[in-house]
Amino acid sequence: MSGKEPLPPYFNIDPERASKRLSDPVGTARFAKAASFAARGRQDLAERGYAPDGRKRLRRFSTWEVCRYLIPVATAHFRRVLRKHPDLPQGVGEGNSKWFSLEDVLRLRDHFATEGASDREYRPWRPEGLPAKVLAVANFKGGVGKTSTAAHLAMSAALDGYKVLVVDLDSQGSMTSIMGGQVADEWSTAFPILAKDYAMALQAENRVRQAAGQPPLPFDETLTEALTISTSDLIQPTHWPNIDLLGAQLNLYWAEFQVPVWRMGLRGWPLWDALSNGMAQDGVLDRYDIIILDTPPALGYLTINALAAADILLVPLGATFLEFDSTGRFFDMLYSTFASVEEGENTARRRDGLPEMRFEWDAVRAIITRFDANQQTDLANVIQAYFGDFMTTYRQELTAMVGQAGEQVNGIYEADYREFNRDTYVRGRETFDRTWAEVKELILGAWWRDLQMTETEEDHG
Question: Which domain holds residue 398?
């Protein structure tokens, strides 16, 4: 080594000097202080770009965006229609530079669906009489783009005209921050849904025990309170007119400890059905078109509930060896968990002469996120080859716009395209537009298949 070259920084560290740079030993109280600082900082960062009252506002969309991305109509014809129908939303702004709220766009969509060309899709297809499609976005490795993917799918679906519910099951609450949600405690999260389902199962068990002359199982204040809450009570509107939120905060994590305690108290309680039961009983599946479940980065009880409730499972991963390896283990864990539940349940059902149960999903897709085509194409092709039809064909590229939107606690659809050059905006948008196109195809295909099955059953009924 030349004498002119500096040594690497890990040589010649003086232990005495290093000890003097240390703070006193850290006790648990220091975590509380760090958490308090982080909470204040998180609030500050989350509110940047919010309105002065601290609430998020959805930006307006220009005539160019409306005609390019939201309503398939030529700009000149769009302007003619507005002049002809002054009762329609006219937008704000001078001359031809008009800007429209999403509420305006939804009203305009309805007009064009009634009056426009018959061969254009002004409103997305949704079969009458069938429940919402439930999508779970899951993987037990953190940092793979779960929340970003879930949020952008919700926004894509909303811009497409669907009524969307987002359920945040991650106690970190990142999705809740993106959606501008306010969640006071665990009683404003999904926790009461799980508690209520257990309480109802316990009530049913105690009725059986009473008829048999046996003492009832204990019923505490938490369960009594949960019985008074419906899923609808927990849902809050967001700054998007057609996206609602069931939010999360740190205390939701207690569900991971409480659920197994409940299960020990009542072995026959099918804990995996609690979330889907709550949504079905309170009519949530009928009030929305699409429900998106954002899960924590672990295969815990909340994630198991999300997966059991889902019609479609989406698994984001980066094009790296570690994320591919972790995702393979995630699928292995899913198999072990759900096959074990099936076997346990069906052993009892066979004994009692009941039909067997099984978990089933309309579709499962792994989505490559944060993709760098210059460096990751070979590995992405290998992943595609091994996962086969479990993969989406499009890979979400990491663009400057995607990175900047994430730093601002926004989705790319919330970013004003005037902050970028037009090409950057179009590329950034395409990243999630193409993912939405593939996911939408899964949703429509599943709905169509359900519809055919329903009509066949009615014909034979």
Answer: 133-448
Asked whether residue 186 falls in the same domain as residue 102, the answer is: no
User: What pTM, to 2 d.p., does this model score?
Assistant: 0.90
Whether the per-residue pLDDT at 46 is higher than 70: the answer is no
Q: How far apart are CA 299 and CA 337, in angstroms?
A: 9
DSSP string, 106-161: HHHHHHHHHHS-TTS-SS----TTPPPEEEEE--SSTTSSHHHHHHHHHHHHHHTT
- CA–CA dist 348, 332 (Å, integer): 25
Residue 23 lies in a domain: no
Q: Can you state the angle between helices 102-115 and 75-84, rounded to 10 degrees?
A: 90
Nearest to 326 by CA among 143, 136, 168: 143
Using alpha carbons, list the distances in angstroms from residue 414 to 45, 74, 195, 429: 16, 23, 35, 11
- Are 91 and 226 found together in one domain? no
- Can you spell out the DSSP letters for 448-461? HHHHHHHHHHHHH-
* Contact assessment for residue 289 and residue 282, using Cβ atoms and an 8 Å cutoff: no
- Determine the Cα–Cα distance for residues 292 and 404; give it in Å rounded to an integer: 24
Burial class from Cβ neighbours inside 10 Å (0-12, 13-18, 19+) for residue 435 reads buried
Q: Which of 146, 71, 99 is nearest to 330 (CA)?
A: 146
Pairwise pLDDT comparison (8 vs 113), residue with the higher score: 113
Four-CA torsion 96, 68, 180, 231, nearest 10 degrees? 120
Query: pLDDT tens for residues 242-277?
Result: 999 999 999 999 999 999 999 999 998 999 999 999
Number of compact structural domains in the chain: 2
Bridge partners, 236 (sequence order): 245
Residues in the chain: 461
* 365 close to 391: Cβ distance less than 8 angstroms: yes
Question: Are residue 201 and residue 92 in the same domain, yes or no?
Answer: no
Cα dihedral value 252, 256, 261, 264, nearest 10: 140
Alpha helices in 314-392 (DSSP H): 321-352, 373-387
Determine which helix (DSSP H) or strand (DSSP E) holds 207, and give its type and residue range. Answer: helix 191-211
Q: Which amino acid is at 202?
A: L
